[in-house]
Hints:
Layout: H1 2-22, E1 27-32, E2 38-42, E3 59-63, E4 69-71, E5 74-76, E6 84-88, E7 90-98, E8 101-108, E9 114-121, E10 126-135, E11 142-154, E12 159-162, E13 164-170, E14 174-180, E15 187-196, E16 202-205, E17 207-214, E18 219-239, E19 246-260, E20 263-277, E21 283-299, E22 308-316, E23 319-323, E24 329-334, E25 360-366, H2 381-405
Amino acid sequence: MKLKFSLLLLFAGVSVTLSAQMSSYNYRREISGITGQWHTLILPEDLFEKSYSHMNDLRIYGITKNNDTVEAPYLFKSLNATPKTEETGFKIINESHNANGFYYTLLPELTIPLNDINLNFEEKNFDRLINLEGSENNKEWFTILENYRVLSIENEITRFHFSRLVFPEASFKYFRVLVKGNKDPQLSDAKMQRVKAAEQHLKTYSSKIKTTELKTNKQTIADIALLHAVPLSKITIDVSDKFDYFRNISISYLSDSFKTDLGWKYNYSALTTGSLNSFEKGSFEFNEIITKKLRITIENGDNEALNISNISVEGTVPELLVRFTKNADYFLCYGNKVTFQPQYDIAKFSVNTINSPILTLLPEQTFIKSNNVSEPLLKSKFWLWGLMLLIALILGYFSYRMLKNK
């Protein structure tokens, strides 16, 4: 009998420990599909707005057949590679001009395929067309780019330069730049390189866009609302107008909101600034932020407002790389304000798990504690008057007894 009682106490203690670990989280999802040691867990879109401290509260707990609690370590998988750049020095071996414009012949120090040349001119304000050619013998030239537009604007309001030549990879011994026009732009420097673009795994999130033109402020405001707060790091703005334009813009995110007698008030914090222009694709990247509301402010100045045909918002889909070492029923837990980023040994080692199987998350279970305030015991005035009358009678009775004894 004593043995059975001791076992009951032991299992009760284990249950209390498990409850203490998992009950401190507002949400959990059971994990299905564990077949080995390493697996990939894709986080659902509606999780981020329920998690705290930039997802540092994520934990994966398991319950074994013996009712033991185990914790599975995880890492955030890095999905976006870093761009690789290979740069070469060069010499300007020939400068000349004719009726077509000004020629600059460049001799790279390394014979590597190039796809990016950034030109720097002494001239501060220009709008030119450029031809780029390549040759193996400095005699026979092959066209790489033709009528490629470059632009520079510098004044008290604006400082903008676009003189970067981007083209398909080309391998030549010599490169020749023709700047069309009758004024020498004075090429002072250039950067010749091969840029291997980073492979990005971004998801385009569906959103609702409301565009408002503020004529008094000479601005266009585009408010972007998403269904859930998700990690975002890129915005692309498509303009349908065919004329040349150059507008300063700022992008901000909703950082706070509060209710007043006049309705809700929203505070936005800056994410990034830049220029929306007809020379470059209107893509803007910024440090990742978890939010569900964005605002784009376009400064129109004295120009007509641009016709925005589409705005797309993109961000990573965070994935966890999880290691399981014990058989158990595992749960992804999140929604804990007081926890900290976990420290796991696997973060110190290189793990080759490119083809790790993908897990399935079952429907969410909610364990949010109720914040209901207890109602007062005496809600009715009649009870209050009755209690006061009873107290008066008791005091009167004892007062009468004391006087009588004297």
